[in-house]
Specification:
By secondary structure, the chain is an alpha+beta fold. It contains four helices and eleven strands; from the N terminus they run E-E-H-E-E-E-E-H-E-E-H-E-E-E-H. Helix content is about 15%, strand content about 45%. It has a seven-stranded mixed sheet.
């Protein structure tokens, strides 16, 4: 499956361990077809975790050819690994090197190299590790296709991502995401998301 990765920066006021409020910018990786869908997906993913207002500060394409996630509890960081694939030109006999970026979830630098080598066991190509560096990425959200229903329901309800993607530039729109009512404000340079104080679950009870 081919992934289109976008790095999204989210800015919000975070409550630190000492109870103080601090403005932070966090980076997340989202799999999406376009910038619009990437923004919609990151808003959908962040809404349940951030109680107050947050801003989608930046979205940019990320060129990762492969991702190696880990289920280990200690593997809580993401490392960007630059590989050089080595191929031999049959005519000239000259070695050719092609660069590729791979993202690895690991505990530290050594663990990242170990997990990278483990993940690359499947490939037959020769490669060398040119660089490994820790990134500021907090989490990764790959695209997961929804399972098809049993066919009884004819009209498919729009997903939260589809509703969010429909929010227009230059407008302020109210959308319900995961039972929470939020305002998506696209009137400024950055998209600002804020809670409305209304909750679908609360309204229905």
């Amino acid at each position: 499956m081919i992934h289109n990765w976008f790095e999204c920066s989210i800015r919000y006021e975070k409550t630190m361990e000492n109870g103080m409020q601090k403005k932070v910018t966090e980076k997340y990786l989202v799999d999406a077809l376009s910038f619009t869908e990437a923004e919609a997906r990151i808003i959908e993913e962040m809404t349940p975790f951030i109680t107050g207002e947050f801003t989608v500060a930046d979205i940019k394409r990320a060129t990762y050819s492969e991702l190696f996630p880990s289920d280990e509890e200690a593997a809580d960081r993401w490392f960007k690994c630059k590989l050089m694939f080595i191929t031999l030109d049959e005519r000239s006999g000259v070695e050719k090197k092609t660069a590729a970026q791979i993202l690895v979830q690991a505990a530290d630098l050594r663990d990242a190299v170990k997990k990278l080598d483990e993940g690359m066991k499947q490939t037959m190509a020769d490669y060398e590790i040119a660089a490994v560096a820790e990134t500021a990425i907090i989490d990764v959200y790959p695209y997961i296709a929804e399972a098809e229903g049993d066919g009884h329901r004819q009209s498919k309800e729009p997903t939260a991502s589809e509703l969010l993607a429909a929010c227009r530039e230059g407008e302020r729109t109210e959308v319900v995401v995961g039972g929470r009512s939020i305002i998506v404000d696209k009137r400024g340079r950055n998209t600002v998301v804020s809670p409305t104080g209304k909750d679908e679950n609360r309204i229905n009870t």
